[in-house]
Every structure is written in structure tokens, then in C-alpha cells.
């Protein structure tokens, strides 16, 4: 009798817990997997002890270590994101680790503790080429290209609302501009090889459709995607079974039919015709236009810089994606071994433009695991003007690095089109977390800049950071990547302008 009573009480308790889990909106995992989802949080609680004795250290996991994920989670939730008792990094032996050199004295610096403090780009996007809708981006940190279809509608909605709250931009990804992108956040419209949302029936580019898309949404710039770090030079196939009525309408493709994305663009065939295409889009829309690419052979970049040096045509920005960048799905050989890592690729491209004195005329954007303060600081020191974050933004809205993006079975509803799994992600609460993470990253960058003695991360130079290159030996970024004097620095007029802008008190 007693056993029956205990069993009944246990069943009642589990039912109540399950009901609460299904109703609550704070934790996606619990909404999708009531009761059993609590096991994950229990294991997370005792995870440090388990890893210490059984599995891995806090710095060993990939692509993001436990410490890195913990920092993002804590930042997004406005919890204590500090770490105690000192570093776990073997600081004199970890090759490739970056060390930022603080300065003892500095001029007057901005407040580094205000989470709402603005951190705009030092450059006006489209300004040097006189674009009609040139503007200064309000944030040096923005959300990278992630398409609806790769991410769920709930995830895109959360990120867009988060972008609006944080004053950042969101890149649509090449999958087209969806209704989920229309939740208040400013957009960078990405155009890929399949021209989703602005294509003819045969897959060729349609300018009129592009102009209609731009006119009906808060699009601030256009990015032509040439390749991405995780799968450069690789086309894609969207199986007909995944081409729902909604996706077909957004992308402009037939319902239920396989849709292949070519590996190369058809609207242009070389650097010269690409620049004609860039100028066409800029003229017809008034928007700044740039390109996104991973870095492989350097002939493309050399030709681009040489043609831009003439002054009559050019891109307004280049987004450099590192080979360590993420993707929903790609062959292992491409994720592991095709295209250069970010630091190596970015430095080569920047140097190509620097040789011709063009770096102040172009906005350089970096992506590929740059949503962590250390990596971001290195990117700025190498000459980046802004950074885009993708997987880190996903982590901020609930991703647990289960690495099931390619299976459509993401347990937290972020990278899936499964309606049941996607319902677990509450866009309203996750939008706040995304915004807090983005603001926290900006605040951390301001703190690092202040430690170096400068007002803005764009003023950190390639001699302010050293990289370990062997036991007890380190070299400056400038030395590691062959930077000449002045490379990685803003021109004097840009440096003075952004310093004065940050020193100006906002009017009430």
C-alpha cells in the first residue's frame, strides 16, 4: 500500500513538472523534452568535476571550449561572467595564444562600464564611394549571415529582435529575406549564387525583384556572397522535401522541387564584370555594396585591389570569413581543410589593399569565431573595422553545441525546421539574451581598448598584441603576419574622427 502511495505521488510530481516544463518559456530544452531535460542541467552543474576526472579540461572542447560557452551563456543571461582563481591556459607554452599589451598611461577614455554605451564603426559605410545611402554603422559587432531554412523561424525572429534591441545589424544569409527578418532589426541583404528572392525562373538574377525586396524592408547594405569559410567553392542542394510552401515563396523556387545552388555566380564571371555588377546594384538601390569571401588563392584579391586603385569602381566593404567559420552542413574535407584560417586570410587580403594605399577607402569586416573578446581584439588589431558573429549569437539564444545542425534535429530549436523542436524556442525571451550578449561583447571590447590606452577597438594596432610562437617566445602580430609600418592602423583623420565621436556626450 505504501509503495503504491509513493508511486502515485511520484507520478503526480512528474506530471506537474512535465506540465510546468511545457508551459514555461525560459528553457527551450525543457519545453521540447519535459522532465528528462532536467538531466542536462544536472550534468552541467557537476560538469566541471566530471571533466576534471573523466573527460576534458575547460579549454579542450571544440569548436567552442567550455569556458568560452560559459562566458557567452553568462553574458547573455546577465549573470556573473567572471572567472576565479586565475587562468587555466598554460600561458608560456600554448602556441598561437594572443597576449594584449596594456599601457600604463592614456588620454581621457570613454566609460567602459555602461552596457548601453555606443560603439560605432570608425568608417562610414559607402562614404568613400559616395553612395546615396551611405551611413555609419551604429555597432562594430553585428549578426552574421544565417538563413531562414538553416535556422528556424523562431531563431531568426529572436536574433532580429535582439539586433533591434542592441542596435546592431543582422545579415539575412543567402536564403532570402523572410518574414522572420522583419521584426525591427536593420538588415544586410546577402545575395548568393542562387539569387534567392531576386531570381528568374531559370535561376538567373533579376534586378527588379531585388529592388522590390530592398524597398520593402530595412535593408542598409547588400553583400554579394562569393564563398564562406566552412564550405568555400561549394554549391548546395536543398532537397524538394524541405522546400515548403513558405520557403518556396521566400526564395522564389518551385514548391517541392530540388533546388541546386551553383558553386559560382552567373551574373558575372571575373573581377572586372563583378565590379560592374557591384556598381549596378549600388546605382539602382543607393546602398553600399560589398562582397563576402573566404580566402584561398590571392589572384582574385590582387586583381580587385588593382582595379579599385583606378578609382572609378569598387566595393564598399569586404567581409573575410575564416576557414574555422561555421555552417549548418558541409563535407568534412571542406570544414577542416579548404580556405585559410581567419588571421592568415584576413592579413593577406588587408596587406594587398594596404600596398596600394586603399585601406581607408574600404570597410573591412571579419567573421569566423570572432564573437569572443580575445579573437575580436586580434581582428581589430589586424585592421578589421567591424566583426560579424554567428555561432556565438546562436549560443546566446540557447544553442548547446550539440552539433546536430545537419540532421534537422537540433534539440533547442535553433537550427531546425522541425515544428515541435522549433516551438521550444521562445523568440521574446531569447531576443533579450541575444541583445545582452551583443552589448556585453561591445562592452568587453571597450574595456580591452581602454587597457591598451585607446578609445576604440579600431585603434588597437598590430604591435599591441603578441602571439606565442613557441616555448617562452612571442612575436607581435605585425611580425607574425608581415605587416609594414602603419598597416592595421586607421588613417589620422579617421582616428581623430572616431575618438572625437566617442568623447562627445549624447544629448538628452
UniProtKB/TrEMBL annotation:
Fetch the InterPro entries from UniProt. Answer: Aldolase_TIM, GltB, Glu_synthdom
Q: Which domain of life is it from?
A: Bacteria
Q: Which family does it belong to?
A: Belongs to the glutamate synthase family.
Enumerate the spans annotated as Glutamate synthase domain.
138-454
What does the UniProt keyword field contain? Oxidoreductase
Listed EC numbers: 1.4.-.-
Native species? Streptomyces chiangmaiensis
Q: What is the name of this protein?
A: FMN-binding glutamate synthase family protein
What GO MF terms are annotated? oxidoreductase activity
CDD domains documented for this protein: GltS_FMN
Amino acid at each position: 500500500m505504501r509503495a503504491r502511495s509513493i508511486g502515485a505521488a511520484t507520478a503526480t510530481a512528474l506530471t506537474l513538472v512535465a506540465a510546468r516544463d511545457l508551459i514555461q518559456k525560459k528553457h527551450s530544452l525543457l519545453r521540447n523534452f519535459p522532465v528528462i531535460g532536467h538531466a542536462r542541467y544536472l550534468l552541467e552543474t557537476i560538469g566541471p568535476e566530471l571533466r576534471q576526472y573523466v573527460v576534458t579540461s575547460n579549454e579542450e572542447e571544440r569548436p567552442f571550449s567550455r569556458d568560452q560557452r560559459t562566458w557567452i551563456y553568462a553574458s547573455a543571461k546577465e549573470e556573473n561572467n567572471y572567472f576565479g582563481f586565475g587562468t587555466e591556459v598554460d600561458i608560456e607554452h600554448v602556441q598561437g595564444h594572443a597576449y594584449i599589451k596594456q599601457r600604463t598611461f592614456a588620454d581621457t577614455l570613454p566609460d567602459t562600464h555602461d552596457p548601453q554605451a555606443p560603439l560605432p564603426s570608425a568608417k562610414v559605410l559607402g562614404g568613400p564611394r559616395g553612395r546615396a545611402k551611405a551611413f555609419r554603422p551604429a555597432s562594430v559587432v553585428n549578426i552574421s549571415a544565417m538563413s531562414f531554412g538553416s535556422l528556424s523561424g523562431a531563431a531568426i525572429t529572436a536574433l532580429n529582435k535582439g539586433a533591434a534591441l542592441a542596435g546592431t545589424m543582422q545579415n539575412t544569409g543567402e536564403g532570402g529575406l523572410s518574414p522572420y527578418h522583419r521584426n525591427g532589426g536593420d538588415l544586410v541583404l546577402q545575395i548568393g549564387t542562387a539569387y534567392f528572392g531576386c531570381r528568374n525562373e531559370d535561376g538567373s538574377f533579376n534586378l527588379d525583384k531585388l529592388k522590390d525586396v530592398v524597398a520593402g524592408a530595412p535593408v542598409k547594405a547588400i553583400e554579394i556572397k562569393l564563398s564562406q569559410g566552412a564550405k568555400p567553392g561549394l554549391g548546395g542542394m536543398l532537397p524538394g522535401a524541405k522546400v515548403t510552401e513558405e520557403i518556396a515563396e521566400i526564395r522564389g523556387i518551385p514548391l517541392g522541387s530540388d533546388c541546386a545552388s551553383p558553386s559560382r555566380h552567373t551574373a558575372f564571371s571575373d573581377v572586372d564584370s563583378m565590379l560592374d555588377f557591384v556598381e549596378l546594384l549600388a546605382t539602382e538601390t543607393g546602398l553600399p555594396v560589398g562582397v563576402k569571401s573566404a580566402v584561398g588563392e590571392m589572384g582574385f584579391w590582387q586583381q580587385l585591389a588593382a582595379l579599385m586603385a583606378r578609382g572609378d569602381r569598387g566595393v564598399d566593404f569586404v567581409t573575410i570569413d575564416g576557414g574555422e567559420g561555421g555552417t549548418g552542413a558541409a563535407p568534412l574535407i571542406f570544414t577542416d581543410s579548404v580556405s585559410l584560417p581567419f588571421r592568415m586570410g584576413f592579413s593577406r587580403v588587408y596587406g594587398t589593399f594596404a600596398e596600394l594605399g586603399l585601406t581607408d577607402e574600404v570597410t573591412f569586416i571579419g567573421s569566423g569565431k570572432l564573437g569572443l573578446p580575445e579573437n575580436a581584439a586580434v581582428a581589430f588589431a589586424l585592421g578589421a573595422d567591424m566583426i560579424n558573429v554567428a555561432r556565438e549569437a546562436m549560443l546566446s539564444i540557447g544553442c548547446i553545441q550539440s552539433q546536430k545542425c545537419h540532421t534537422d534535429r537540433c534539440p533547442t530549436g535553433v537550427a531546425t525546421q522541425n515544428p515541435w523542436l522549433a516551438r521550444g524556442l521562445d523568440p521574446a525571451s531569447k531576443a533579450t539574451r541575444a541583445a545582452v550578449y551583443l552589448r556585453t561583447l561591445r562592452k568587453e571590447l571597450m574595456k580591452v581598448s581602454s587597457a591598451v590606452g585607446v578609445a576604440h577597438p579600431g585603434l588597437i594596432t598590430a604591435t599591441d598584441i603578441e602571439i606565442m610562437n613557441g616555448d617562452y617566445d612571442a612575436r607581435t602580430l605585425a611580425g607574425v603576419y608581415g605587416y609594414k609600418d602603419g598597416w592595421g592602423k586607421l588613417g589620422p583623420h579617421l582616428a581623430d574622427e572616431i575618438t572625437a565621436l566617442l568623447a562627445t556626450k549624447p544629448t538628452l
